[in-house]
Design a protein that fits this description.
Elements lengths: L11 H21 L12 E3 L4 E6 L5 E6 L6 E4 L5 E6 L9 E7 L2 E18 L1 H4 L8 H6 L3 E9 L17 E8 L9 H14 L3 E7 L11 H8 L19 H10 L28 H7 L9 E5 L8 H23 L9 E4 L10 H7 L9 E4 L19 H17 L9 E9 L6 E10 L7 E3 L9 E6 L10 E3 L1 E6 L2 E8 L7 E7 L10 E3 L8 E4 L4
Parallel strand pairs: 1-7, 7-10, 7-11, 8-10, 11-12, 12-13
Antiparallel strand pairs: 2-5, 3-4, 3-6, 6-7, 8-9, 14-15, 15-20, 16-22, 17-18, 17-21, 19-20, 21-23
Length: about 550
């Protein structure tokens, strides 16, 4: 600590005063060197049943002692030359009473109080994850009812690593430190994340920690490490990424079938995989690859988590196949890096739930994007929820920012409970797996009929046709004249009837201008704003949008 300059003509009382001030400043500086990163603090939630990686800052070469109230012994560490220290504290269960962590180094001490253990979820993505509870439907009632002392919130500030965009950071900024859910704390927190966490807490009776780290308008690339991005750069030689989309998961096979139908004229839909973005612009969402991975995700890695909720894709909607690679690679990479940083035992395949894009104006990009997103399910322990039925043009946040966050939060909670708690629940709705032509007609008019089979429905949870008295405006038939016609070939609305608990029959009589063309595909809920979910299961979950190729005659 620098010493003050004292003049020989200065009165002794002034000199003494300066020395005292300097001594106090040096003492305060030494005391302030013992501190914790922004994401540790009182009221925090730690992942249960996992050893706790706990670190902080201090004066190099000094000793630090850490005592956790649930631990039988203290932990010690020596501060490194870079000014940081780390210890591993023992695991604890959610039944552990509210705990304290005391940290000391020499005469310096700090204490973290009211620490709970439970299941921690990180919620990331773009603006529909960012939209707050206060902008959600029934906000006043939801905020008034938000009194959950065993749900804790942490909100990461939207600050990219502009000062060092290429280096993963160790610490980050928070806009809201760990806090219990109350009517005062919840209004500015992510609505989607909160409603999912609340429903898990109420259904499973477990303490829940929620970490919001998102930024509106961002593409997937800014959330990916360079290693993860490299996996997709390597796929550019295969614009269809046939290997990535090979149906390892039965539900992911629907993406492969959709690509088969789209590939007839793929130039407008199937684009090359990711290429580097332009540098970030100050004041807007970051666009430089890995920027937010470095500043808003990497620092969180020592915090073990139960699972991840992802809500993004609008900014990547022009490249549906490339997005399958991007998000699949992001998930694999986050799991590997989180597992390495948070220490073992840790779930190497923690559950990941993502949302298929909802209804909003997007120049026809959403049909291809929605059906292709199913390909991400080839990544283990993932689930996709459906939301095309809840877009709302008059939402307070604008038509791209639907306000029914409670509905998608509930659907995400169902999916997370299936993946993370092994519950037998319906969470994703009926999924069309194949179409079989049963009648091609004859003569001057061509009568056509096909049966479409679904999974995720059965006699206990049957397929339902919500508007049985009218044609189902949403299932369309393509009558093409050969390869290269899609997507400009004509699509005609069909009449749909319920065949049984797991199938529908699609039929249509084609006019004279269409008899020379062979039906080549069926699609459902393809438009940016499709009709409300006419096909559902008995729980009200909508059927997935689909694009199914039809066999040639």
């Amino acid at each position: 600590c620098p010493q003050p300059t004292i003049s020989s003509t200065m009165p002794s009382s002034c000199a003494l005063f300066l020395l005292c001030v300097a001594a106090a400043a040096c003492a305060n500086a030494a005391a302030s060197s013992l501190r914790l990163p922004s994401f540790y603090g009182s009221h925090m939630m730690l992942q249960q049943r996992v050893p706790v990686q706990f670190w902080g800052y201090g004066t190099p070469d000094t000793s630090v002692t850490v005592k956790a109230s649930w631990a039988s012994a203290t932990a010690t560490a020596t501060v490194t030359t870079t000014g940081t220290w780390q210890v591993t504290l023992p695991a604890a269960s959610a039944s552990t009473p509210a705990s304290t962590i005391s940290v000391s180094s020499g005469s310096d001490e700090l204490t973290v109080t009211d620490v709970l253990f439970g299941d921690v979820y990180v919620c990331s993505g773009q603006s529909n994850m960012e939209i707050s509870v206060s902008l959600s439907r029934n906000a006043s009632a939801e905020i008034a009812a938000a009194n959950f002392s065993n749900i804790r919130l942490l909100q990461v500030a939207m600050k990219p690593a502009y000062y060092n965009m290429t280096t993963p950071q160790k610490d980050l900024n928070v806009s809201m430190s760990w806090v219990a859910v109350t009517p005062a704390s919840v209004p500015t927190f992510s609505g989607y994340c909160y409603f999912m966490g609340r429903d898990i807490h109420q259904a499973e009776g477990v303490n829940v920690g929620l970490i919001q780290s998102c930024w509106g308008g961002t593409d997937a690339q800014v959330w990916m490490s360079p290693q993860a991005l490299a996996q997709c750069n390597a796929s550019q030689s295969d614009p269809t990424m046939s290997g990535l989309l090979a149906p390892k998961n039965p539900l992911a096979a629907t993406a492969t079938m959709a690509l088969e139908a789209m590939h007839k004229s793929s130039s407008s839909v199937l684009r090359p995989a990711y290429k580097s973005s332009t540098p970030a612009q100050l004041g807007g969402p970051p666009t430089l690859p890995s920027t937010l991975w470095n500043s808003m995700i990497h620092p969180l890695l020592p915090l073990a988590i139960k699972g991840m909720l992802w809500d993004q894709g609008e900014s990547n909607a022009g490249d549906p196949v490339g997005y399958v690679c991007l998000l699949s690679s992001l998930i694999r990479d986050w799991r590997v890096q989180w597992n390495a940083a948070a220490g073992k035992p840790f779930d190497p395949e923690f559950p990941v739930v993502y949302r298929q894009l909802h209804a909003y104006p997007s120049e026809g990009l959403l049909g291809p994007m929605r059906v292709t997103m199913a390909g991400i399910l080839n990544t283990p322990a993932t689930a996709m929820t459906i939301s095309y039925d809840i877009g709302y043009m008059a939402s307070p946040g604008g038509n791209i920012h639907f306000w029914n966050k409670g509905i998608i939060g509930h659907r995400a909670s169902l999916a997370m409970r299936v993946l993370g708690y092994k519950r037998d629940l319906a969470y994703t709705g009926p999924v069309a797996t194949h179409a079989e032509v049963v009648d091609r007609g004859s003569g001057g008019l061509l009568y056509f009929a096909a049966d479409v089979a679904f999974v995720n429905v059965n006699s206990d949870n049957p397929l339902q046709l919500v508007y049985p008295q009218a044609p189902l405006h949403g299932v369309e038939l393509e009558c093409g004249s050969g390869p290269g016609t899609w997507p400009n070939s004509p699509w005609t609305t069909t009449v749909v009837t319920l065949l049984n608990d797991t199938a529908i029959r699609v039929n249509i009589t084609l006019d004279g201008t269409e008899t020379a063309k062979q039906p080549t595909a069926l699609r459902y809920a393809w438009w940016d704003y499709p009709p409300p979910g006419s096909l559902r299961d008995s729980t009200g979950l909508p059927a997935w949008p689909f694009l199914l190729p039809l066999p040639a005659p």
